[in-house]
Amino acid sequence: MPINIPNHLPAKQVLESEHIFVMDESRAFSQDIRPQKIVILNLMPKKIQTETQLLRLLGNSPLQVHFTFLIPSTHTPKNTARQHLDEFYTEFSSIRHKRFDGMIITGAPIEHLPFEDVSYWEELKEIMEWSKTNVTSTLHICWGAQAGLYYHYGIEKTELPKKIFGVFEHTVLKKHERLVRGFDELYYVPHSRHTDINTEQLKSASDLDVLSVSEEAGVCLIVSKDEKQIFLTGHPEYDTDTLLQEYERDIERKLSNVEAPKHYFAPGGKEPVNRWKAHATLLFMNWLNYYVYQETPYEWD
């Protein structure tokens, strides 16, 4: 949240020069406050786990946040009880007439499929098009980021020779962008994917800014110039043991070339070490504050 500072206090100019967000008295006095409306399109198979992960990160905000959980009508989830879906989820037809302050599109374990072969691709395209006019800012995660980059900018995904799997160090390229304010110059993000984005096509996209990269995991954080579209190739929302669960699942399935997640376990042991929680929380707080709350009109109409 911004610091409310008197207009003529000397500290105001110093903090602004350091890219600390401050709000002067006149703006604070006139600013209306209401709950922020966030719609979460949950495409992950373990929906309850993903709900908990995302709400944990967004729940640290002092803002009041109202959530709507969304699933495609053209796909029937197999790993979540129908009762849970009926009670807590809605479909796009029920909300398409509404406006939301923010939207999150999660990942999905369907990287092996061309986008056009995904059962709900046409519906997802309709939702992403709708978001351009009915959502202030949309955060795309992992496969959701690849799908968003493909739909909005024509950037394709590419097959990797080996799965990117582990917790990787990232470098902040644009330190003064609002989304990475407060970040250390190096920070960690979990990744778990068999595909990457086409970096040559990304370089040609003049409407996008790359905010952070990893030598091992590639581009991580991308923001559109108008800040309405944010793309995150990793999984900072993951719990400490999520990669371990995926690793054990792959071993149980007897998949070929299964490797332990890199930079994940404590040295000499088998216990995971969480090195990404603080930056994950900061990332979601920055998005919710700077890209949603500060940009959304009090009355959409």
TrEMBL record:
Transmembrane domains' residue ranges: none
Molecular-function GO terms, alphabetical: homoserine O-acetyltransferase activity; homoserine O-succinyltransferase activity
Sites marked Important for substrate specificity: 192
Primary localisation category: cytoplasm
EC numbers for this chain: 2.3.1.31
A GO BP entry: L-methionine biosynthetic process from homoserine via O-succinyl-L-homoserine and cystathionine
Protein name, UniProt field: Homoserine O-acetyltransferase
Organism: Bacillus siamensis
